[in-house]
Amino acid sequence: MPVEAVQLNEIGQIALTVSDLARSQQFYEKTLGMKLLFNAGTMAFFQCGSVRLMLGPPEPGKAVHPSQTILYFKVPDIHAAHAALFAEGVAFIHAPHIVARMKDHELWMAVLRDPDGHPLALMCEKPIA
Question: So what's the pLDDT on residue 97?
């Protein structure tokens, strides 16, 4: 198949390595409210809209190193999501703040870390009244 014919435009799954599957599964399922799809051996799979998130251990002999890649989760109300997660004991690196102002909306972000230190962000596009 010629290279021109390949067009990657949809992410089907994202994998994160974790040091303790039970602890991470609890965080993603109970604290963040993600829907657990299934467990398969040492992996747990969650539904995130049209993308699947897989949590699993690192390769044998390797350690978990938090990524510099950030997963951004859309939320309808960033202040309510921040307050609810903060009440659950989630520590935020950055509280909700405006990142950009566009003609018709503001882009808000808040950044937290999962139990292994992977950065996660909440994002909200607030319409300008």
Answer: 97
Q: Kindly report the pTM of this predicted structure.
A: 0.86
Question: Residues 6 or more apart from 90 whose CB is under 8 A from it?
Answer: 31, 112
* Cross-strand pairs, 44: 39, 55
Please tell me the class of the 66-129 domain.
alpha beta
pLDDT at residue 86 greater than cutoff 60: yes
pLDDT, position 93:
94
- Written as one string, the DSSP assignment of 54-95 is EEEPPSTT------S--EEEE-S-HHHHHHHHHHTTPPEEEE
Give me the architecture of the 1-59 domain, per CATH.
Roll (3.10)
Beta-strand relationship, 71-74 and 92-101: unpaired
Record the tokens describing residue 65, joined without a space: 């190193």
Two tokens, residue 43: 């992996």
- pLDDT score of 70 more than 70: yes
Three-state SS at 128: coil
